[in-house]
Write a structure and sequence with these properties.
The protein is an alpha+beta fold.
Length: about 180
């Protein structure tokens, strides 16, 4: 009977971490999203994009949604490599600048005709509960594409079941061993 109680406690200890559901504090104000502008020094289209973002930051409706993060890529090799890595993760190539990234959406080039699309993407990313900051994830080495995520998440149940099986076998051997 004592062995059964110990096994029950052991099983609970193993499963409790999977049963806990922590809820976020809903009173907390939502953080701004990052909008990334990869640009080249001296690029006229990049300068046009920067000027437009300067005017947008004065717009009370949109300024509360985002922070502009600027990367110069023509003279900074590390920034150029980051832009290429981000583009690769997004399934595209960064063939020029400006290269704008909002969450998991990107825009190549800049023209006045893109303004409404960019504003919509900023607002949608801010309101999206599942917003993913691809650039930040690439910089930190934590971002995975959906394919990479599926491959790694498929292993999680196998690992968990394997650990539980090993612990159970060890516990059974230990507790059924005659003294």
């Amino acid at each position: 009977m004592k062995k059964l109680k110990v096994l029950l406690v052991l099983a609970l200890v193993l499963f409790i971490p999977f049963m806990v559901n922590v809820q976020a504090d809903e009173t907390k104000e939502k953080d701004k999203i990052n909008v990334y502008l990869f640009r080249g020094e001296g690029c006229p289209h990049c300068a046009e994009a920067e000027e437009w973002f300067d005017t947008l930051k004065d717009d009370e409706e949109y300024s509360k949604y985002y922070t502009l993060v600027d990367y110069e890529v023509w003279y900074d090799e590390d920034n150029a490599k980051l832009m290429d890595k981000v583009a690769e993760k997004l399934g595209t190539e960064a063939n020029g600048v400006p290269f704008l990234v909002i969450g998991d959406k990107y825009y190549s080039g800049f023209a006045e005709s893109m303004v409404d699309q960019i504003k919509t993407s900023i607002k949608e990313a801010y309101e999206n509960e599942e917003y993913v900051d691809v650039v930040k994830g690439v910089k930190e080495g934590t971002y995975k594409t959906k394919t990479e995520e599926k491959q790694s998440s498929a292993l999680v149940p196998i690992i968990i079941v394997s650990i539980i099986a090993v612990v159970t076998v060890v516990a059974l051997i230990f507790f059924t061993k005659e003294k």
